[in-house]
Amino acid sequence: MKKHDESEIDDMINLAIEHDAERSHQERLARRRKITLWAIPVILALSAVGYVIVKHQRLVERGYDTATMLIGGASSLDNPFYPEAEDISSSLGAAAALVKSGSYTAAKDSLDILTTRIDTELAFDGDDGSNEQRRLSLLSLKDEAQWCRALLMLKSKRPRKARVILESISASEGQHADEARGLLDEVWENSSTK
Question: Which terminus of the chain has fewer CB atoms gathered within 10 Å of its CB, N or C?
Fold first, then answer.
């Protein structure tokens, strides 16, 4: 057996230590690469989710604030053309008051009942033109109910449902078509810039 002198043994030990240190360094780098490769998609996904949440929250706040301002002007409608209009109009005013007070579920239920009642009365009117003024009054009240429903959806922080209703109103030739278009522009078009 060959005897190694102390300097050779020290050199072999130092070489082994350097080799071990290099291998440990390479292992640490490999772990960092794995963590980085795993972390980047997670960070990107979380950032995207955060962006969507913030954008949605801004939209909700803008819609809520705008609806608060607009619902303040909602009131019952006087309609002298047929007696039932006053009852429907007062129901619509009550629904608007429920929205103002924050009773969103009750307001939604009230608007559902009111819309069904208007649709039923419209269905029972013939197309013979004899009740044209009554039909126009009912359609006007139905437009008001839809407008109130859109504002309710904004106040109850449900902007997607509000947008569908507002798009329907803006596509119609109803009394709130221009207001609906303006509200769509104000809340949705400008939400990306703020």
Answer: N
